[in-house]
Amino acid sequence: MLQRIAKYLLWFWVFLIPWQTRWIIVDPIIGGAAWEYGRVSLYAGDIIFIALAVIAAFLAKSQISLPEADAPLVQNLKSQKFGLNYILILIFFLWAGATLIWVDDRLVGFYYVLRFSQIVALWFIIKIIKPNLSLFLSALIASGAVQAGLAIAQFGFQYSPADKWLGLASHAPWELGPAVVESAAGRFLRAYGSLPHPNMLGGFLVFCLIAAAHYISRVSGRVALWLVLPVLVMSQALVWSFSRSAWLGLAFGFAVLILGSRGVRDTQKKFIVIFVLISSVFLANAALAPDLLGSRLAAAGRLEAQSIAERGAQAGLALEAAKSHLLGLGPGNYTVWLMQKFPNLAGYAYQPAHNLYLLALAELGIPGVIILAALAAMFLKFCRKNLLCLSLLAAAGIISLFDHYFWSSYSGILLLGLALILPGVNGFSIHAHSWYNNREE
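^ thats the sequence. predicted structure below, dont judge the formating
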């Protein structure tokens, strides 16, 4: 009974990842505006996660109390190779913890270390409750479809109303601040969904589309046909996010899916068909609104030039921070450094560098990046035969060249964490065509 409840909670937790409903515990105001990256928050998803962890702890205790031969948790953990993999993870957290000694804002640093540790906790939770892959994929597809519907409504009405209970902020194209795309026809609000920025919506939808493609490749024709509609809806929302990094990440993610499934013809054909469907949505939008997509793809116009210039300046600042702090500024403390370097700005002006790799270098220093590189090599080796994991990591890797949210935001960290823990989920292998039919009821 508890195991069934835990699986429902896990599904709901994945569904809630993009929602920003939260209690802001620490809300620093800098220059009359909120400093988002200095906030300490408890999200609605965190409450579900805590409940999930408590149930998992009870299940673990009951399993360990059994005779060793009958204890599934003991046997499960014994089957794992507790070697270099776990030593590297331990070293990473020891180093991240060590940086808290010299960070300027210890509370922010601890908060981000806690967020990273949530990924490790999630790994242990799935080892205890043993969910099937269909749970994660169906939760992502359902969540993506809801986000896509909200995003399409936002773009259609060109307005997003605020709602504190849903964690939604107000956005309108006639206001200063919201992300917009400009063309000869005027300013158009980019779709946000429930996420803090359209680029984050785009990245989330890329993960959901890859999950949907993997799900469709595993199910019968009738079930696959029903999933075509959410794929088309999510594709349209992805277009209206106008996130170039997400578009590029989608292309790389599907390239991995298609090229990596060459030995399984039926699966490869399904991946190609899905990619053609998604591409047809992009082409239809390009035909109906060439100015909007053209301005983003060509990076033409005042806003596009300003965005590119700002990203270049941010990259230079991140490198400057890394050179002056070889041991790192500490997790989450890059914007603290910016605050010291450029005082008297409003809180919203202090943004992380739009390149995850440079941001990680600035915050963890050279030792931290070496540890992260070793961890990345470990995960790539671990995922080398798992096409879903490889495609998600490929998409995230490309997006991270242009964005920071997989490192700096609640939803981004957890989304990347899902990709990293998926190889440990039941029925994961690309060759396990029966995972859907054999799913646990």
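The longest strand covers residues 22-26.
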